[in-house]
Amino acid sequence: MKNDEKNFTENFDLPLVEEQEYIRAKKNVTLHNFRKELESDFLRFVKYMWPEFIEGRHHKDMAEMFNALADDKVDRLIINMPPRHTKSEFASYFLPAWMIAKNPKLKIIQTTHTADLAVDFGRKVKHLLDDPLYSDLFPTRLMEDSQAAGKWKTEQGGEYFAAGTGGAITGRGADLLIIDDPHKEQDLKKDGKSFEKAWDWYLSGPRQRLQPGGKIVVVMTRWSTKDITGQLLKAQMADDADQWKIIKFPAIMPSGKPCWPQFWKLKELQKTQATLTPSRWNAQYMQEPTSDEGALIKREWWQDWDSRNLPSPTFVLQSYDTAFLKSNNADYSAVTTWGVFETEDNGQNCILMHAEKARFEFPDLRRRAHELYLQYRPDMVIIEAKASGLPLVAELRRMGIPVTTFTPSRGNDKFARVNSVSPLFEDGRIWAPYHEMYAQEVIEECAAFPHGDHDDYVDSVTQAIMRLRGGYFIAHREDEKLEPINRGNLEYYG
Fold first, then answer.
1. Which are the contacts of 435, defined by CB distance < 8 A and separation ≥ 6?
2. How far apart are CA 395 and CA 247, in angstroms?
């Protein structure tokens, strides 16, 4: 406030005592206005208390939600975001300090996955309240006997209590309940019961401590469809249940840019992605956990081709699911390439040889389709006969590329098509090179269906397998045995 104080040193033709009183009064007005500014704007408060803060777009979105929370416009808030994106600094450090600055009588319960970490949050908030930057502006004062880091009170009647997931919260009340990363790494290595225990603890513990008009903030990295975020979203389907405002920040946005480019460079995120399995990356960094529960094509049904050299195919097929609008919200265009091969013990099989998807303008999609044709020389290219696919069919045929349109029969929706090919997966006929990232991406999207955010690969995969089975290139072991087909002379329509 030194710069502000300079403005008060004006020369007045007043007695010294009156001049000092004037300066003091003017300074008090300025401090009052500045305090009100910080109280009304969470992000402004953070910038004042944390000068080294590196601001990203997601911080503005979080701050807007916290402002809405304080203004009683939101009372149930979920924020899902990747590790190391300042979620805890915002939600478990600055948010309680800011809320209790606005209302020193506030009762706060803070939870996270371990008691030690929860207490550490309490210690940091407590130290912040004692910081002169804070205490010179805000009236909140700690009780003299508030020595414990995870349990303290304000002179105005406010309370703060920290607990780990599973910890006892009996006898506590909360105007504000903050749940920060309630799950830990070890939860993934167990049989899923840890997620159930965390959910039971939330229902019987923290949720029951909420006072009338109280607010809940859940800020976490996703781990599983069974984590607390997943359970809350499932529970809100019931009548009269808590209704949640949810915002999700993937590490890499749909635009292909990092969520926080001021801190995380795209190459660094890509390096991280390369070290993780797709399921772990999708959950923790993209906030899109997948599960085999309810999956129509399960992960374990895919056969792993563990050699770096793919088998020599007797027939190659490329399958397109197309979308042409290049925008952040548009669907992807997806293409998968498949090879038919034979094993001594299992007859005819097919293997995923390549997959990719992107948001294309039509000229770019046309160009890429031509490149992939030249690279793999497929015997057949199939494209669904829908509005976005027909121009590509026409263009590729002009190039002399053998394109066949795929037209699902009436009533043959996505569920029916996936169900029609799933027996071949269960039968061990479908292979993929697990060591390739493209294969992992396809496997994960199929495992996520029908609950995943995207199904572009699913559409490409199902129409490819349906065509191969319909053309008798592959068959289930229980299918009726048919005479061998001379594939060299085969022209398949339909």
1. 306, 308
2. 41
What distance in Å separates the CA atoms of residue 403 and residue 393, rounded to the nearest whole number? 6
Largest Cα span, the chain? 114
Tell me how far CA of residue 431 lies from CA of 217, 304, 422, 467, 471, in angstroms. 44, 6, 13, 16, 19
Peptide bond into 450 cis (omega under 30): yes
Q: Which DSSP string corresponds to 56-85?
A: -HHHHHHHHHHHHHHTTS-SEEEEE--TTS
Beta-ladder partners of 382? 319, 404
For CA atoms 194, 200, 206, 212, the dihedral sign is positive
The pTM of this model reads 0.63
DSSP 409: P
- Which residue carries 């087909």 as its tokens? 485
How many Cβ atoms sit within 10 Å of the Cβ of residue 142? 17
Q: Which residue has 């808030």 as its token pair?
A: 77
**What's the distance, CA 3 to chain centroid?**
44
| Contact between 457 and 336 (Cβ < 8 Å) | yes
Q: Which two tokens stand for residue 272?
A: 């991280």
Per residue in 449-475, pLDDT (tens digit) is 877 768 899 999 999 999 999 888 998
Cβ atoms of residues 153 and 161 within 8 Å: no
CA angle 379, 333, 421 (to 5 degrees): 60
Our CA dihedral for 268, 274, 280, 282, rounded to 10 degrees, sits at: 70
- State residue 70 phi and psi, 5-degree precision: -65, -30
204-233 pLDDT, tens per residue? 999 999 999 999 999 999 998 889 999 998
Interhelix angle for 42-49 vs 95-102, to 10°? 110
Rounded distance between C-alpha atoms, residue 102 and residue 95, angstroms:
11
The residue ranges of DSSP E strands in 169-262, in sequence order, are 174-180, 210-220, 245-248
Domains and CATH numbers, the chain: 71-248 (3.40.50.300), 299-489 (3.30.420.240)
